[in-house]
Fold this sequence. Notes:
By secondary structure, the protein is of the alpha/beta class. The chain has 14 helices and 18 strands. It starts with 8 loop residues before the first strand and ends in a 13-residue tail after the last strand.
Amino acid sequence: MSPEVNLKKILIIDFGSQFTQLIARRVRELGVYSQIISHKKINNQLLETPNINGIILSGGPLNVYEVKKVKFNKKILNSKVPILGICFGHQIIAKEFGGKVNKSETREFGLANIKKINNSKLTKNFFNKKGFNNVWMSHSDEVTKIPKGFKVVASSTNSKFAIIESISENFYGIQFHPEVTHTQNGKKLLKNFIFSICKSKKNWSSKFQKKILINNIKNYVGSSKVICALSGGVDSSVVAKLLKSAIGKNLICIFVNTGLLRKNEEFEILNTFKKRFKFNLIYVDAKNLFLNKLKNISDPEKKRKIIGNQFIKVFEKYSKKIKNVEFLAQGTLYPDLIESKSATGSQSSKIKSHHNVGGLPKKMKLKLVEPLKYLFKDEVRKLGLELNLPKNVILRHPFPGPGLAIRMPGIVTKEKLKILKEADAIFIQSLISNNLYSKIWQAYAALLPVKTVGVMGDNRTYEYICLLRAITSQDGMTADFFTFKKEFIQSVSNKIINNIKGVNRVVYDVTSKPPSTIELE
């Protein structure tokens, strides 16, 4: 079930850059389908497909002159389509055609100013009127000699060959990263490559995705039944609505209320999907079950595992009651497919178990339906709006699978959950009423496992600390805290303390990611 069937695309070959996903997203934002593949998985059959309009070679942590570490498939360069090399990809092009790459005497990390040397289709409307532009560099190697037949398009102080090209061979190399927002007009450069050089035509939109995905689901599932775990989050909501549009009543959704959701969230989910959209929905109230399983558990990893395992057991129990089910729907996204291992083969550092509930058990012996597995999160949101899902569902902030349990360091109790739900509701509603919610990537209240002394009237209090967190981000990989006006944060603090018994102090988290993570646990 792939939405890429018969689509012309830009193929992105990944060498382990932290920005590879950004390249793919920028291409898609321009309306052209892109696909990422590890440089280790390139084969002749893939390169010979007529669906490739152009190839982008990503950056990466490797060094082109360390031959043992880099086994570059030279047939990529014989693919007869335009090729753009970014950073490490730029160095590969230079080396493979007879140029030289060496360790830089002066490394370039961060903003650099580059100067136009020659005109190029690649850089149309890229430079300012004086022929300069600020770009984002991130390299410790540099091209010291360009291959025969190539010309210099632009230079920086530390990169004489910041942009090079061979028009006859249709090869282009750039030392900087046009995909990051720090590079001015970076999208224009990619646009020039995709449309002026690769001659691509727009073929990627939420309207098109909706059409092809619904058709794919009908062809793949037929008249069979599909079960889906509906959490009310963006991914599961879009998957469910897509399947409902394709197979109607043959979709059965199971909504497990763990008791760890936000205030009144279970009622909102039931109203949206059961009443408004008439979903075939099984509601399981498992609040007490999850609370009992979490009793006296304070370790965050144990909490996650207990919640994940218990969810699977409950889901499995109710799914067995449904007869003749052949398929299980999951909200797997494109980053889930390409993040499990880096392109260089190195394992990513384990920070914590994934926030979302883990995969359902293989013993269920159901075929998987993963209609979103070639989409990025921003594309899923747009698709959801195309499917007429409410904005309050589609544009909601991310929410972790273990729910409020990991926004409550220490032991989870019924009393603490009630306090936290009320505090979070006041904070989020204040953001909405002040038109701040859409400006923030993620915001939440947390309850710290600490009590402090306070004074209310003439009485001494000894109650919990409520922590507020609000961050800005593009993809959740890095984040910065949102700067509120004093009046706003003071108002929220007063509302929480005056309306919620159990809290006498409110603090605001002003750490970025890194060094901290977005969630507390």
